[in-house]
Amino acid sequence: MPKIRRIPIDTHPENTAFLLRHAGGYSPEQFQALRKIRITGSCGEILATLALVDDPALLEPDEIGLGEQAFRRMGLPEGEEVEFAQALPPASLEYVRRKIDGDTLSESELNAIIRDISGHRYSPMEIGAFLVACASFMSTQETLAMTRAMIDVGNRLHWDAPLVVDKHCIGGIPGNRTSMIVVPIVAAHGLMIPKTSSRAITSPSGTADTMEVLANVDLTAERMSEIVATEKAVLAWGGRVNLSPADDVLISVERPLRIDTFEQMVASIMSKKAAAGSTHLVIDIPVGPTAKVRSQAEAVRLRKLFEYVARHIGIVTDIVITDGSEPIGRGIGPVLEARDVMAVLNNDEEAPEDLRDRALLLAGRVLDFDPSLEGGKGYARALEMLASGAALAAMERLIDAQGRQTLKLEPGHHQFEVRARSAGRVTAIDCHLIARIARMAGAPIDKTAGIDLFAKIGSQLRAGDPLYRIHAGTRTGLDFAREMAAENSGYELR
Fold first, then answer.
1. HSE-up of 169 (CA within 13 Å, CB side)?
2. Which residues pair with 320 in a beta bridge?
3. Model pLDDT for residues 411-424, shown as the tens digit of each residue
4. Is residue 253 assigned to a domain?
5. Cβ pair 468, 441 in contact under 8 A
6. Is residue 246 part of a domain?
7. Is 260 a catalytic residue?
8. DSSP letters along 249-261, please?
9. CA distance 50 to 58
10. What is the pLDDT of residues 2-38, one digit of tens each?
């Protein structure tokens, strides 16, 4: 039997195995037919895509190499013996073919698909086929069934409290880092709000990326529980605790294909919230010409879908439809967004008002879940927690509990100001394009990269006035962002 060897190659999200082309008595033709192999060891089995190696310096004839993902999932030390064999296609692929033909799938069929996806038995191409088929048509019942299936295949967090609140924005608006203000406000009041968040995939920063500027976010479930027990809150990366793992696999394929249907969005968000143990949830749906939701009619349809799924999985949900016509705050990118968040919590006179107002609105709606508060008093209580400094104190305690970052990051020192080409009033800002420019500068991988906005919709500008400043940690990142901004700044002036 071959021995496993760790190959330091990141093949995320796939499991990849490596074999010498002519090892073990197999012919090249047989290897080409294998595509997927099943590797079995003392701790269980994984399925992996096979890659053939022609350089004998990389592997011994009696070894099977495992890429980083496959090695971690196999859970065995190097040198352990394993068995491998050709992997048969998952039986659930037949259901995917039926979905491609336009059929409506049953709950058991969707369960089988999601189990196989979370078990990494599908290739990205097969996942893509499933997602495209679902994007063509997915019933409300299928959305609910998919949500339930995604909840069932991962871990679930349990909290010793009858009321566990959360807040989520569907995304698409740069700088909308309200969660980092809502969480300490709600915790200061005394409600439990364990917030797990994703890292950014196509945006310049996610809540986890921005919080990581201030504190450690890579926490185990046990450490999260300890922090919540003392601080009533946490702001952590959800990937560590394996909540709705099928969603992470689906997202890795969705984003390059730019598939983001309402049905898949609802299944993704609600499965994560249920797995995180939330009982009450406020959802922010920004509506704007360059947001994910472009019209009030679309927002109402999405609201009804959220409410339907939430009711059937037992989460009390309050949907808030907000203005998504422009970025929120001034900073876009981890360091710049963290600066804005702390300015709001510090009651700084220079703090961005729109970020403060949006966070107070949402925190108030969360606090309205508290039965001890008189109806409609949530906003006043949120304002009190912020103005008194209680929210700031809660945030400082939370940062210390999670592990304060000792390295203080500053905005990238490579800078360039994008200026107005003509005089006029700002009438529109393209959220999607502004986000892309910030990503070209290096955000969120380079936490110092991003955009500092100087003008918002309604600003009256002269020719040559600055619209925003691009920050980057590298000259290359700055040049990429400058080139994109030169083609289109993302601003319309009239």
1. 26
2. 284
3. 999 999 999 999 99
4. no
5. no
6. no
7. yes
8. HHHHHHHHHT---
9. 15
10. 899 999 998 877 889 998 887 666 665 565 555 788 8
